[in-house]
Amino acid sequence: MGRDYGDEIMNLKYRKIKNLACIHGVYLSFQLLSIFTSLPCQAEIYMQTSSSGMIQFSDQPTAPASPIILRKINSYSPSPTPTLTTVLVDNKSDLKTYEKVILQTPKEGQTFQNQQQIPVSIDINPALNPKDKIEIWLDENLYQRGNEAQITLQNVERGEHHLQIKVTNAEGKLLNATNIVTFFVHQTIGESPS
Hints:
By secondary structure, this protein is an alpha+beta fold. Helices cover 20% and strands 32% of the residues. The protein contains two helices and twelve strands.
């Protein structure tokens, strides 16, 4: 008599499906666990000292326990990424007034450690016409308008910043501009701009 392999094959398939279902169940459980454990929670913490001098912490208040006041957690909210806009110029020949406007420093992605003064260096070719102005835009706000190709940004807060240089004529019409450059300022905890 020959063996009936059909039942054995069915049992193998059934065990394989059962094992896969078990694996997927465990995977789903880990995903749910990671979601629930990553949610922020806030609970009071109480401290008490026992008669033997041992310090005990708990989330349940007891008669001799006192609540612990925790320092605020150091956090950072990034500034929104600026929207790049196309600059419209009335006459294409106006763009040729300045062949090159390059932001030399800071460089794209550059990080400054514990500095509140950020050097800015601009390369303009041909040289700036005395009637034209250099506008320095920091985080989409006009920081300075003048004739200086080297300046220092003062009291720059920690975080991500966006810098753009625009060259305008006496009437404020845009002649040329750099790309937006993103740079970062890192500050050691406890230090702040003066």
